[in-house]
Each structure stands twice: as structure tokens, then as C-alpha cells.
Amino acid sequence: MFRLSSFRDRLLEWIDSRPYPVIPESSRQRVRHWLLHETNSDLSVSRPRSRLHWGVPVPNDSSQTIYVWLDALVNYLTVSITPSQISHNSQTHRHDNGTEICGSVWPATNQIVGKDILKFHAVYWPAFLMAAGLPLPRRIVSHAHWTIGKSKVEQFYFSSDSKKWLNSIR
């Protein structure tokens, strides 16, 4: 079990910090509602393998599969932070607001996600990062669904170079 309930107050403090890390305001309020009313329980980090055949098996328990969102969200880190950066902070930098970042691409400056996966990106993922002692995304933008070639786009990641674009959509 992941003790999500123990991160509730820190998540609320983060969600209410300025500039607001989740926009638009309606999405920030949805996250606040989840934190205030739905995060009083802990999160199972595995699912029965019978329900999720394709997932990553739990070590030493072939009947269980790692919860897909825990696995998927951790994958974001593996493309941006090497184990030596985590253990030795070999490439630690600071944003101008003092927030420490690892490497050159984490934390995500602007994470743009579909509204149907907002809880995973604005509640679970930040709690996982807090538990690991890693920096949180600076901004999560929740959107109705954008499409490319008639297919729904779930998320985009932008570097700090996209700041002008993000400022234009606020």
C-alpha cells in the first residue's frame, strides 16, 4: 500500500501555492476536492494479475501486477533522471524560484494532460514524487481533449522554452 493519506496536507499546500501549479482554476478546484474528500485512504500499488495480464509482475508474487499508474508515472523519471543523478545529484540545478531540479528536463516545466487523467498527474504522481524526495512539476495544464489526426492526445511535455506559449493560454 502507498500511504497516499499521509501526503494529503502537503499536496493541499502545493496545490494552493502560487503561481498555482494546476490550471485552469476549475481543474485546480477538482484536485482540491479530491484531496479534501477522496484521499483519506491509501492506494494499493498492485492489482490481481487476473485483471491485468500485461502489466509488470510484482517481484516474488506472480498473482499480482504493479498498478499501471505507478509503473507509468515512474517511467517519466527514467527518461529524464539517471540513477547517478538521483543518488549523487550530479547535475542538480535550481530554477530562479529556488526549486531544485535534477538533470535538464526534470521536473517538467509544463505538463499538459487530458482532464480524464488529471487525478493521476495532479494527486498520485506528486505524492509519489514527494515520497521519493524529488521535485514536483512546476505546472500541470488540464485540457478538454485535443486531437491530432482524429486521435485523442493525452499529454504533452514542454521545456521552459515554451513559457511564452503557456503564458498565452492562461
UniProtKB/TrEMBL annotation:
Task: Keyword check for Disulfide bond, yes or no.
Answer: no
Which superkingdom heads the taxonomic lineage of this protein's source? Answer: Eukaryota
Q: Which InterPro entries match?
A: Met-tRNA_synth_2, Methionyl/Leucyl_tRNA_Synth, MetRS_core, Rossmann-like_a/b/a_fold
- Specify whether Metal-binding is a keyword of the entry: no
Swiss-Prot/TrEMBL keywords: Aminoacyl-tRNA synthetase, ATP-binding, Ligase, Nucleotide-binding, Protein biosynthesis
Occurrences of domain Methionyl/Leucyl tRNA synthetase (ranges): 1-153
The UniProt entry, under Gene3D superfamilies, shows: 2.170.220.10, HUPs
Q: Report any Pfam family annotated for this entry.
A: tRNA-synt_1g
GO terms for biological process, alphabetical: methionyl-tRNA aminoacylation
GO terms assigned for molecular function: ATP binding; methionine-tRNA ligase activity
Instruction: List, alphabetically, the PANTHER family matched.
Output: METHIONINE--TRNA LIGASE, MITOCHONDRIAL, METHIONYL-TRNA SYNTHETASE
What protein is this chain from? Answer: Methionine--tRNA ligase, mitochondrial
User: Where does this protein come from, organism-wise?
Assistant: Geodia barretti
